[in-house]
Design goal:
By secondary structure, this protein is an alpha/beta fold. The chain has 3 helices and 9 strands; from the N terminus they run βαββββαβαβββ. The strands form 2 sheets. A 7-stranded mixed β-barrel has the order 1-3-2-6-7-8-9. The structure holds zinc ion.
């Protein structure tokens, strides 16, 4: 199947916005869970690490394991990760590029002055040289089959 982009169920999109608002001015970070390019759940990952509050997006091995476990409980898969950019554009940073994996979608939400704003999705090229933006769609709440 050709994957042309990522579709978010409304519950997942609102969970990402809520998390971005809640953790502002820090970055939030979480996992995208679903199947076949449709995100059915957003799992918030802890906002503090051994180094203190998350200032930069970094998915740690125990985050990854928790996300995979949660996805398995939902009979779904891990499609990618999201994080917020407080008072910054919803575009990947150099740091994001260096810490991403090619198989996943990376959703970034800009949070401007505490208000969740633009949401974008990105895929790392196989040679890890750059991100390509992918289409991000928010599914219609009335259309349960959207994006499948
Ligand atoms: Zn970032």
């Amino acid at each position: 199947m050709v994957r042309s982009g990522l579709t978010l169920r409304p519950v997942a999109a609102s969970a990402i916005r809520h998390h971005g608002r809640e953790t502002y001015p820090h970055e939030c970070c979480g996992a995208l869970i679903g199947l076949g390019g449709l995100v059915t759940a957003a799992l918030a990952l802890p906002n503090t690490t051994d180094d203190g509050p998350r200032r930069r997006f970094l998915v740690r091995p125990n985050d990854y394991q928790a996300a995979e476990r949660h996805a398995a409980e939902l009979d779904a898969g891990l499609l990618g990760f999201y994080h917020s950019h407080p008072d910054a554009p919803a575009r990947p940073s150099r740091y994001d590029l260096e810490h991403a994996w090619p198989v996943f979608s990376y959703v970034i939400i800009g949070v401007d002055g505490g208000d969740p704003g633009q949401m974008t999705s990105w895929r790392l090229r196989n040679d890890r040289s750059a991100f390509d933006q992918e289409q991000l769609i928010e599914a219609d709440p009335d259309d349960e089959d959207a994006g499948v």
